[in-house]
Amino acid sequence: MCDFLQSVLDKLELCCKDVVDHVFGALLLSRLFVFEFAVLELIPNDQAPTRVKEAGKQYHRRQRDQSPLRERERDKTFAFAAFSVTAMGIKGLTKLLADNAPSCMKEQKFESYFGRKIAVDASMSIYQFLIVVGRTGTEMLTNEAGEVTSHLQGMFNRTIRLLEAGIKPVYVFDGKPPELKRQELAKRYSKRADATADLTGAIEAGNKEDIEKYSKRTVKVTKQHNDDCKRLLRLMGVPVVEATSEAEAQCAALCKSGKVYGVASEDMDSLTFGAPKFLRHLMDPSSRKIPVMEFEVAKILEELQLTMDQFIDLCILSGCDYCDSIRGIGGQTALKLIRQHGSIETILENLNKERYQIPEEWPYNEARKLFKEPDVITDEEQLDIKWTSPDEEGIVQFLVNENGFNIDRVTKAIEKIKTAKNKSSQGRLESFFKPVANSSVPAKRKEIPESTTKGAANKKTKGAGGRKKK
Fold first, then answer.
1. Phi/psi of residue 175, each to 5°?
2. Where do the 5'-3' exonuclease domain residues begin and end (predicted)?
């Protein structure tokens, strides 16, 4: 694995400091060793090749000394291309929190979420499945009609795994994106178009490495992928929520209202929407080996010494999906400015305009409003979150008859769903007591008189989703 990472580092001939910090910060936190070559999208054509290699060497020395995972386990560990290192959500937020608010995050075992209700960002998960499940180069799993089934196999197996661990998932799907996100979506479309052209060239040249790299960059989650997964989940008896706009915002709203314990996603802006507890790597295929990273927004605010409004401004300054950031201002500089001036407005009044170029018609206030007042469902009738028995005939019809899954494997998987649902109905010990609503601010301790205190004393599922498609 060390040789592999070094070979990747050798390919990163040119890299700026901010990208290096972001990449290796993500690696150190998540213990993800293989980050593909998607990071090349972020690298400008200048600066500091030697710093990248040195960072890799230092990283491996620490890993060898600490030995957090056995060597054979390391070799099995892998990451999804374009996930841990490409810019999604808030740029560089994981690294910023690791440096300035380390106690806001903690490693948890996958099994520690037994009995927990978790809101899952469905589109993010589907994207993962399309990139990895059953893919070899440009080939993907398909049914007899040639329709891709990687997302179905991934969603089916992963959901069963969650249920077997006693986790109660609530899948939240994206609705209509806000107008402010149109520019970001246009950038993603342009990158996919460029990747498609590069893929064509790689195929003509027969370059397997480039074919693998560019084919993953062309992946897009379509309406059909979403509809397929919604149908499958409902047949499995798993609740589905269709957000009016951003899934991350709806997930955060469910968490803030106490309907779920936490939000599972790889998109860090779930924290900016105010999700009290945010879980990374829960949906990773190797989650039993890679620890789940749990973030707590109350501790973030406490350690950074910021209010929620200031944290939102920090995220906007760092770079979000809704507007451009100020060139030259990264996470650390943004934190320093927010602590010094308190808000974006005051920062702009005092900013050196010769050193920093503020984007024209910068819609930071509109972005702030989207984070503070997102379009989410609050109607209890529309949020009918219930886990029901699986529709066995419906699952067989959809997966086996319509999509070419193996009947024996699907039948065994259905039995696992039924067993898992009986197991998860036991609940957690604390569910027998009065629940306490989640809060995004630290709870105040009740003072107790001194006189009073003195007297007090598993098995992985496997499904087949058809043949390979080129």
1. -105, -145
2. 116-386
Domain final position from 86, 116, 136: 86
Q: Does some domain include residue 453?
A: no
311 lies in some domain:
yes
Q: How many domains does the chain have?
A: 2
Task: Return per-residue pLDDT of the chain as tens, 470 residues.
Answer: 444 444 444 444 333 334 444 444 444 333 333 333 233 233 333 333 444 444 454 544 444 444 433 333 333 333 333 333 334 579 899 999 999 999 999 999 988 999 999 999 998 889 878 876 645 444 556 656 667 788 899 999 999 999 999 999 999 999 998 887 666 556 655 655 655 555 456 555 555 565 555 455 556 788 999 999 999 999 999 999 999 999 999 999 999 999 999 999 988 999 999 999 999 999 875 545 788 999 999 999 999 999 999 999 999 999 898 888 898 899 999 999 999 999 999 999 999 888 888 888 899 999 999 999 999 999 887 887 999 999 999 999 999 999 999 999 999 999 999 999 877 666 665 554 444 444 444 434 444 444 444 444 444 444 445 555 54
341 part of a folded domain: yes
Q: Does 118 lie in the same domain as 12?
A: no
The pTM of the full predicted model, rounded to 2 decimals, is: 0.70
Alpha-carbon distance values, 145 to 141, 186, 393, 468 (Å): 11, 31, 22, 12
Residues 210, 65 within the same domain = no
Amino acid 37 reads F
| Structural domain boundaries, residue 73 | 1-86
Last residue of a domain, one of 86, 101, 134: 86
Residue spans of beta strands (DSSP E) within 327-414? none
